[in-house]
Design goal:
Layout lengths: L1 E4 L6 H11 L3 E3 L3 E2 L14 E2 L2 H9 L3 E6 L5 E5 H9 L3 E5 L2 H10 L4 E6 L2 H11 L4 H15 L7 E4 L3 H16 L9
Parallel strand pairs: 1-7, 1-8, 2-7, 3-4, 8-9
Antiparallel strand pairs: 3-6, 5-6
Helix pairs in contact: 1-7, 5-6
Length: about 190
């Protein structure tokens, strides 16, 4: 499995969308969350939206590969059933995770390949402010968290700097294609 992580605003989603267009053997898991649905989101497409009590029941039942409690007390996690669904379709699962969850998967899943997407702090601040999906307080929290997460980049197998979108997409695509190649022998960083 592939695990893509990095701070909010680093461009993970943008890079992953382009990767999926270029490498159809990869499929993104749909994470579960306790946060409210935003306009235009659908249950099972962007996230599995679960009430907090159901999320807890699923934690207790061992249904999650990983889960974290994030900004404003919302929980996010990867259901094991998502991995099975993707593998059953003959695809390689890709998990887009916050750094805490990615480190848990790296520790617990021996063959997981972890990729950290980085960007300059000033760029992260600009992207988060322009996105305007959170309140000013939440944006401030995410910027502070992003600064801490950037310091963790060396804990992951690969780091891709997203200061030039085209170059970052090319690097991610090349990395994944090499990992999918028979007898892939790319050394981890």
């Amino acid at each position: 499995m592939l695990v893509v992580t990095g701070p909010s605003g680093a461009g993970k989603g943008t890079l992953i969308r382009e990767l999926l267009r270029r490498v159809p053997e990869v499929e993104v898991t749909v994470s579960a969350t306790t946060r409210e649905r935003r306009p235009g989101e659908e249950n099972g497409r962007e996230y599995w939206f679960l009430p907090r009590d159901e999320f807890q029941r699923r934690i207790d039942a061992g249904d999650f590969l990983e889960w974290v409690e994030y900004v404003s007390g919302h929980r996010y996690g990867t259901l094991r059933s998502e991995l099975g669904r993707i593998r059953d379709a003959g695809h390689l699962p890709l998990l887009e995770l916050e750094t805490e969850g990615a480190l848990r998967v790296k520790e617990d899943v021996r063959d997981a390949v972890t990729i950290f997407i980085s960007a300059p702090v000033e760029e992260l601040e600009r992207r988060l402010t322009e996105r305007a999906t959170e309140s000013a307080g939440e944006i401030g929290e995410r910027i502070e968290l992003a600064r801490r997460q950037l310091l963790q980049a060396d804990e992951f197998d690969y780091v891709i700097e997203n200061d030039d979108l085209g170059a970052a997409v090319d690097k991610l695509t090349e990395l994944v294609r090499n990992l999918l190649a028979p007898a892939a022998t790319m050394p981890r960083r």
